[in-house]
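Sorry to interrupt, but I need a hand with the structure work. Can you supply me with one protein entry, sequence and fold together? No commentary is needed, just the two lines. Leave the record below and I will have a look.
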Amino acid sequence: MCSGGFAKCLGISLIPLSIACVLCNILLFFPGGTSVESEHITNEVWYCGGILGSGVLMIFPALVFLGLKNNDCCGCCGNESCGRRFAMLTSILFAAVGVVGASYSVIVSAVAINHGPECVVNNTGTQWDYPFSNGDYLSNTSSWTTVCLKPLSVVSWHLSLFCMLLVMGLIQMALCAVQVVNGLLGCLCGDCCRGGDGAV
């Protein structure tokens, strides 16, 4: 497979991951699937790791990767091979942007998982707090419903969505890292489809 064709496969993989990350982040604004006042939404949700990091910032490299397959740049002084190599070099820079965006999402998700959700911790429903801020709740599932009283199932909601963001962010980082290597090979070695149609 040509380096451009492989980059297109990576771009196709990044698009649904980006959409899924945006949806997960949006769902986190509704803890437990319910609507609450904005001041009671977990702080890390407002950092928008899934929307900005794994979403918006990931769209740019994905679109660049998709365009590499059919790149018909005339190149340097009419040298088509030079233009295609430059395109692969540019893809490395956009892959780096993708790594930064995915890393931001991963860091925010990891902090949120450790910090736990904000929830009601008394029977009157007036006191909101972060009862799991020391991160010791992950193995103690029985405390999820006894400590966090409302919204219902907020701990599993919080944990599931942020874990999904964490995993998808790691996958995005891996895909962008692969494109860095692919871009370097395409830039240094040029067209690997000898005898083909000449597309990178």
Remarks:
- Residues 74-79, 194-200 have pLDDT under 50 and may be disordered.
- The two ends are 9 Å apart (CA to CA).
